[in-house]
Structures are given as C-alpha cells and as structure tokens.
Amino acid sequence: MVQQGQIDHLLQETGEITPPPHVAAQATLQNYDETYQNSIKDPEAFWESVASELDWFKPWDKVFQWDYPNFQWFLGAQCNITYNCLDRHLTSSTKNKAAFIWLGEDGTERIFTYGRLAQLVNKFANGLRAIGIGKGDRVVIYMPLSPEGAIAMLACARIGAVHSVVYAGFSVGSLKDRILDAQAKLLITGDVGYRRGNKVDLKGIADEAAKDLDCLEHVVIWNREKDLSKVDPDNTPNIRDLSASREIDFDELLATGDIDCSAEVMEAEDPLYILYTSGTTGKPKGVLHVHGGYMVGTYYHFKTFWDVKDEDVFWCTSDIGWVVGHSYIVYAPLIAGATTVFREGAPDFPKPDIFYEIIEKYGVNVIFTAPTLVRMLMRHGDDYPKQYNLTSLRFLTCAGEPLNPEAQRWAYQNICGGGEWGYLVDNWWQTETGGPCLGTLANMPARPGRVGKPLPGAELDIVDREGQPIEEPNKGGILVIKRPFPHFFRTVYGDPDRYAENWNTIPGVYVSGDVALRDEDGYYMVVGRADDVLNVAGHRIGSAEVESALVSHPSVAEAAVIGKPDALKGESIKGFVTLRVGNDPSDKMINDLQQHVRQELGPIAMPSEIEFTPTLPKTRSGKIMRRLLKARELGLDPGDITTLED
User: Strand 339-343 and strand 198-200: pairing?
Assistant: First the structure.
C-alpha cells in the first residue's frame, strides 16, 4: 500500500474552487445529500424511479436479485436500448434535432438528425438481417471514429446482435484474438482511419486478422476513400446477392434495407455488448453489459452528473473503441435526446487551437474529456484559448487518469474563464462500471487533486487488504464497490471465474484495483493503480504521487515515472518529463525538478534520473503506458503496443 508520508504534497491546502453561481443554480441535481442517502438506503426504489422515465415493452416483475457475486436488474422486463435512443424521439420535435455532429480531421462536417439517424440505423439493421445476423450473434466492429461506426453499433443492438468494438488501429493479433474469443459471425471494418494526417490501413489489418477464421461468415467494409459523391445508398441499382459473398460493401448493404425496422424485443438482462479492456497491464478481458440496466444507469448520470440540458451541445472527446465512447458518445446522449459532437483525429491536429475553434463554432456547452487532453492544451500555452470566445462552455469534465491540481487550475483559468462562464470537475469510473461512480457535481465545490464524492447509486469504500474499512481521513487503501448498480458489468465473457475473482479477492466487495483515500468531508482522491507502486529502500511510493509532484512544477506539462532495479535501494526512480512551451531541457532543469520533488515528497521519492521527452506513450484512451517506458529502459520486450496513441 502507498506510504502515507509520501502523499502529503497532495493533501496540502489546494484552495477549494466554488462553482460559478449560474452553473450551480441550474444544476439538475440540487439535493445531493438527500438523493445519495435515498439511493443507498433503498436502491431498488431509486433505480426503479429512474427506469420509469424510459420506455419498456414489458415492465419488470422484480427490480433486483443478487445471487452473490452474480446479480440481475429489472427481472422479467423487456426493452431495446435503441428504442429509447431513437423511436421515442420520432413523435416529437426532437425528430428534426441534430443527434450527431461529426467532424473529420480534414475539416469534414456531417450532421445527422434523429429522424435521419433512425432511418440509417434501420436500413443497416435490415441489411444485417438479410445476411443472416440475428439475436445473440456476435459482431466485431473495427471502425474509425465515424457515424458509420456508431450506426453499426446501433444496428447490431437494434436486432439483438451483440457488438464488440475493437479500437481502430489495434494489431492483427489483438483483433484476431477478440474475434475468436467472441466467436463473431461478422466483422465490420473500414478501409482506412486517419490520425495526425496519416492513414491507418484498417482493411489490411482486418484482412490478416480474418484470414482462415471459420467463425466469420462475412466481412463488411466501409470504403470511405471511394468517391462518395457518386454513391447514393438509397438508390444503388442492381444490388447483388450479398448473402452469398464474404466481403460486402457497407454502402451496398445499407442500400438493401428498408427505413423501417422494428426493434428486437430483448429481455432486460440480454447482452448488449462485449468490450475488451486493454492498455497498460494484464490480459484483455471481455466486459459484458446488458440492455436494461446499462441504459438506465448511463442515462441517469448523463442527465444528473453531466447536467446536459435539452438545448445543450455536448462534446465527448473519446472514441467508440472505449467505454466512454459507448456510454457517452452513442448510447446515453441519444437516450436523453441530446446533440453530440464527436471528432476523428488528434485533438491538437491539424493545429494546436482546433479544440477551442470547435467550442466557439458549435457553441459547445458541456465537454467530457481526459486529463491527458488538458495537459496537452496546457503544454501549448495560454495564448491559444485567448483567441476564441469560449463563453458557451458551462461544464468541463475529466476522467481516465487522476487530474492533477496544476492542470485543473490551468484549465479552470484559461478554458473556463476562471469561473466567469465555466466550471471544471473530475470523475472516476471503469469499463466495468459502465458509467461514473465518483465525481464532483455542477453545484459542488471542487477540490483540486480530489475526484469528488460517490454519485447516487454507487456505494463505495476504502479498505485494507483484509477488507477492513479505513475510517481515518486521508489514509490510503483499496477502493472497492460494495453493491452492484444497474449499469455494472454482468460477467467476463466466456470466463465467469475471472469475473468472480474481483468479488472474491476481498469477499463481499468488488475490488477496483485502484488505491484511493478520502478526506473528512467524504471527497475521494484516486491515487492510481495498486500495481503502479514503486519500492524504494522499503518505502512503497505511488507513481502518481511522484508524477503529480513533477507536474506541480510550473515548467512541466506531463510526467511519468518508473522504477529501475537498484542494487542498494531495490528500485530507483526515473522520471520522463514533457516541458511546457517556452521551457528548454538542461542540466539545471533536471536539478530544479529533482529538488522540487525532494521538497514536495522528501528525499526518498526524488528521481535519480530525469529524461526529457516531447511526448509520453499513452493508450488512445489517455492512460500513460509506464510498462512501455520500463521495457525500453530495461531492454525488455514491450509486448503489444497497438493501444498506443501514436
């Protein structure tokens, strides 16, 4: 466990940030304490009330059943998540409202109303049915961040097929393993993806991965590089017998379908999707979410935590390859009838100020992004945000890694106008939870370095390795979830024993794998993964602590640290540092940073080495890949690096 003495710098008085009055006044959830206590005292009544706001084909017979560690929500109910995403909006003015605003890295803009999106989803769903895809079949989607990728997801859910999105750019081996694990009948892919002006050959990777796989009956290809001006998917003549062909053109399949397609009637506990976790450590596992509970939970937090109003423009900077993109690009915003911006490509390409330009152009009101992006913007300096009118931005939220206080303060001042128009908060969750568990609400004071309080419906605690609760304020322990909520994952696909391990490591609770602490007012700080711990001369030091100390220096934009074998100390610390614009690497800078960490944390945590680097290796979801830095440093095999951002 992390040494308490090593996190003192994180616990210094950071200065609470008060939400701007206009942001707090319009917050949807005004009575946090009462709502939270009600959700914990009677979770069944709480979630039943939320579920009643949505459309069901058949109501539930029982709200919740727990056969530890397995559980079910809304037993006996029938629904389809896409009915709530699309159909329920088609009889109101929302039909003609923009559902998606998609932006390409090259400046392309495509807008889809709810009415048109429903037609396209129905057409593609009918096309899938025509080639033999139906309820329960698994479909792997290996697509760039595009409307076609979202349409493919929704079409699968429409007919009851279980989609498994694989991030576009994963290796041949990674894609093949996921196809085999899911025993997918269909692979949907694109010819290319774009990142920083470069093409990613998705078709070549897909061809190699799909070769000799007997389970695959078809491969559907979105050929985006063909002349789209000559293709009208509504009027393509002479459609061939697609069911007889293994390779099928996406637009041809779309053209075969009618604009009407009834949603498959699904049991609430029927699978919706499998999403394989990947990134910094461990073998990927297939996290399985279901139709009923997932739609209830993600919808609730979209309305109450992200606080998105009917007239708002919402921008999620994630990708459909990650759980954030599933929950808060595709499903929850559509259920709520919101307008969502999403964009393919790097957030600072083709120019460092494209992020601010989009906020101004589309009048973006609420953003969900990662601390990585905030630190990237901070690195580019203070001048860019001053060139744009950002006053539409009311609420900026972060998740993915701990949001260090320096980045939070910088963004609050430079992107949110110091509170004149906007507010910045943190939140925490995992692929397994489907939606946020900890966060700072729009009307709740923010404490830099702390993620916030448990959100309604999420009962969390901090325990020691024996499972005993840690009541002492600001003492680190293991972050656990005490009871499953509706949007919690149901199992690890094909491996129920691996699912049960998370509940049996410390009996009675779900072990998140993160280290956290809690102050006297109930604000949590998530320090980092339990396995990201350095052992220096017998002192266990969290990598996030040293990194936060480095980033608190005014010259540093980002930092990562690793442990290196040391004959005397067991491990020594090496830091990798990206400097902010206007600062140059030098021996003096190294010494300044070492002394800064020494002052913040003490001599035991001072890096013995510091290397300056223009970028840090990160997954596409923004997590720093420390294992890759360590492998390079020690001359080891880095393993699968296809999750890298660049």
Answer: unpaired
- Is residue 455 within 8 Å of residue 436, measured between CB atoms? yes
> How far is the CA of 392 from the CAs of 50, 73, 156, in angstroms?
29, 38, 35
Q: What is the pLDDT of residue 8?
A: 38
Angstrom distance (rounded) from CA 239 to CA 27? 52
- Which CA distances in Å does 30 have to 143, 272, 310? 40, 32, 18
**394 vs 22: CA distance, rounded Å:** 9
What fold is seen in the domain 116-264? Answer: Rossmann fold (3.40.50)
- Cβ atoms of 162 and 136 closer than 8 Å: yes
* CB within 8 Å of 195: residues ≥ 6 apart: 105, 169, 345, 346, 646
Q: Among all chains, which residue has been given the structure tokens 């946090």?
A: 32
Q: What distance lies between CA 604 and its chain's CA centroid?
A: 34
Q: For residue 621, is pLDDT > 70? A: no
- C-alpha 445, offset from chain centre: 24
Q: Residue 3 — pLDDT band, cuts 50, 70, 90?
A: very low
Strands (E), 277-356: 286-290, 313-316, 339-343
Number of CB atoms found within 10 A of residue 591's CB: 11
The CATH superfamily assigned to 17-80+276-448+460-528 is ANL, N-terminal domain (3.40.50.12780)
Cβ pair 340, 101 in contact under 8 A = yes
Judged against a pLDDT cut of 70, whether residue 586 lies above it is answered with yes
Burial class of 110 by CB neighbour count within 10 A (0 to 12, 13 to 18, 19+): exposed
Cis status of the peptide bond prior to 473, with omega within 30 of 0: no
Per-residue model confidence as pLDDT tens digits over 92-106: 999 999 999 999 999
Backbone phi, then psi, for 49, in 5-degree steps? -65, -40
Tokens 């999106």 correspond to 117
C-alpha span between 461 and 478 (Å, rounded): 8
Fold adopted by 532-634: GMP Synthetase; Chain A, domain 3 (3.30.300)
How is residue 330 annotated by DSSP?
I
Residue whose tokens read 């002006």: 197
Q: 363 and 584 in contact (C-beta within 8 Å)?
A: no
Q: For 302-330, how does the pLDDT look when each residue is reduced to its tens digit (9 = 90+)?
A: 999 999 999 999 999 999 998 999 999 99
30 with 465: CB under 8 angstroms? Answer: no
Rounded to an integer, what is the distance from CA 6 to the centroid of its chain? 29
In sequence order, the 6+-apart residues with CB closer than 8 A to the CB of 64 are 43, 44, 47, 71, 72, 73, 75
Among candidate residues 438, 441, 419, the one with its CA nearest the CA of residue 429: 438
Strand partners, 289: 273
pLDDT at 228: 44
Domain ranges of the chain: 17-80+276-448+460-528, 116-264, 532-634
pTM for this model (two decimals)? 0.84
Residue of 239, 241, 260 whose CA lies nearest to 158: 260
Which helix or strand (DSSP H or E) is residue 426 part of? strand 423-428
Instruction: Give the per-residue pLDDT at 643.
Output: 55
Burial class of residue 229, CB neighbours in 10 A (0-12, 13-18, 19+): exposed
Does residue 302 sit in helix, strand or coil?
helix
Tokens encoding 504: 């049996």
Q: Let me know if the fold of 17-80+276-448+460-528 is the same as that of 116-264.
A: yes
> In DSSP terms, which residues pair with 310 in a beta bridge?
none
Q: Which residues contact 492 (CB under 8 A, 6 or more apart)?
A: 285, 286, 287, 288, 498, 499
The single-letter DSSP state of residue 41 is H
Backbone dihedral angles phi then psi of residue 147, each to the nearest 5 degrees: -60, -35
